[in-house]
Amino acid sequence: MKSINPIVHGTRQPIMPPAKKETSQSVSTSFNETLKTISTLSESLTISKHAAQRLNERGIQINENEWNLIGQKLSEAKSKGVTDSLVVLKDAALVASAKNNTIITAMNREEANTHIFTNINGTILMDN
Fold first, then answer.
1. Cα–Cα distance between 98 and 13 in angstroms, integer?
2. Spans in the chain with pLDDT lower than 50
3. Element (H, E) at 39
């Protein structure tokens, strides 16, 4: 049997109907919900045992709004490739792991003035 050229002889394949839009919307909604959940989880901040001890010893008080802002800024720094960060506040300086969303240590500003910080690849200034 001789093969036929579909273009010349007008043979056509059936056209598949386009996918329903409802399915793609539900997929994008669930994706958005998942993204929001991951974002919320990634902004939660962990304070190491060492950092909690230093905060207590040095009498450093940080309110909940500041902790939330620190968490957001660490997430932003992480998205820009920062792994370890120095967070400078009005009355304190914190060394934080943006990679793990963990506060590693804390000190007051006077103490921080005399220190050299190493292995830091990002700084977050929040001293206003």
1. 55
2. 24, 27, 41-42
3. helix 21-43
